[in-house]
Amino acid sequence: MSSALLLSVVLAYFALLLGIAFYTSRHSNNESFFIGNRSSKWWVVAFGMVGTSLSGMTFISVPGTVGLNGFDYFQVVIGYWAGYFAVIYILLPIYYRMQLTSIYTYLEKRLGTTAYKTGALFFILSRTLGATLRLYLVIKVLELFLLEKMGISFEVTAIVILALILLYTYRGGVKTIVWTDTLQTTFMLLALIICVTYIMRDMDLSLGAAWQTMRGAGFTRLVNTDPMSAGFFLKQVLGGAFITIAMTGLDQEMMQKNISVSNLKDAQKNMLTLSFLQAGVVFVFLLLGGLLYLYAMQHGAAFAEVMVDGQAKTQFLLNGADIAGDRIFPEIAFSYLPPLIGIIFIIGLISALFPSADGALTALTSSFCIDILGLKRRDDWDERKRSRVRLIVHNTFAVVFLGCVFFFREADNGSLIQTLLVVAGYTYGPLLALFTFGIFTRRKVTDAAVPLICILSPVLCYILKKFDKEWLGGYTIGTELLMINAGIAFLLLLLFARKKEAH
User: Across-strand partners of 311?
Assistant: First the structure.
């Protein structure tokens, strides 16, 4: 397949995004950037948020997990679905009743300025790491299967992609992203459906026959019944529920789009629709993963036990190369499927990338400007100065993104979807504890103790996870890391709490 052709497709895609950005950012101001003037259509936001919630990580890593873990990941997705109800009926009513632009303003009103700043900083840390991890994965794939052949380096690719994201988000913000996310989600889902359909037709399998073949190969295992395993069903479901509450309901990026809808009822419809769409789409990604492994096995691939650094490791070898995990989808798409499917793969991949990267950049800019700099409270700043400060912050975060992408390149350990969940467990735990303490207790917390508690809790969790098998009789901590982290932080908050003063 011609690398120049693929590159042309990528550039044409960017040109389309820039055209949408130009159209939607006309007459935009700071309110357009931060919350889209609260005029977004709920059904547009719901559909576009599918792409944001899934990202390039889902597009690449989720199909890759099927070979060794079957459909285990869907246990987490069941938990996601349950977690959405807490967001819909507990958090959204609070955000709309208080008419928040930044959701972390709730912490200031309930717990004080230090809790407010701490919560915002933990969001900034969490979203920066999560977004750049997803961004790194897609740039890595583009480098390995496209740009390396053209002599274009990883560094140049990362810089160009971030520059292009800046171009179409720097003015319109949420007002633009609501529509670009809708376009990108459409392309991502079309790519997914086309790839699944083509592989089944090429292997002469109906949907029922494909399922039976995957089942025979052990790829459809869903329920993990080993309570000592990190993938145990109950742990995955509970962990998934709390991950959704934290990574959606307490995340400025996700809520910034949601509260751009004009009223609570429509915002709740948006989230309910998203919960069903996300579960269905992830299931199809897992189905695609099973088909990819079957397709590779039909072309000579096989599982093999090999020794890596003195330890036995299962690999999925095709022509002597391990293509399990993050490599299988791009490897099959570019090396074994027709060129048209390779083009569709590239379109789907970059469509999965940008809803998470552009939204994160916008949300981080919003949170830093509003929560840390207090931009909306600066009466001595006119609209022009506020816009100038916002652009400086926006560009600075792009540079930070670049540095994190380069860091992840050095720290890459293979499949990144589990890495993302672990990062979320450490960084969102204190944020979940702060909101839980604020909503479900009537107590006040000693202001100065909040930052120390929010730092101490992840440190204790890191030590516990490092020695979990040794200290817990073989028990392995998985997605419940977030709950443990939040639980420790919540107990420490109670320890330093006092009764709320009566008014």
Answer: 308
Token pair recorded at residue 172: 């319109």
pLDDT at 227: 86
Structural domain of 484: 3-499
8 Å CB contact between 453 and 207: no
Percent helix, percent strand, percent coil in the chain, to nearest 5? 75, 5, 20
Give yes or no for residue 39 having a pLDDT over 80: no
What CATH number is given to the structural domain containing 458?
Answer: 1.20.1730.10
Task: Look up the pTM and report it.
Answer: 0.82
- What is the number of residues in the chain? 503
For residue 135 the two structure tokens come to 């961004």
Please name the residue ranges forming H helices in 412-478.
Answer: 417-440, 449-466, 468-471
Half-sphere exposure of 204 (CA within 13 A, CB side): 1
- At residue 37, the pLDDT reads 45
CB 175 within 8 A of CB 33: yes
Rounded distance between C-alpha atoms, residue 110 and residue 123, angstroms: 18
- Number of structural domains the chain divides into: 1
Q: Is the pLDDT of residue 355 over 80?
A: no
For the chain, give the percent of residues with pLDDT over 70.
88
Q: Partners of 497 in the beta sheet?
A: 445
DSSP letters, 28-79, are --HHHHHHGGG-B-HHHHHHHHHHHHHHHHHHHHHHHHHHHHTTTHHHHHHH
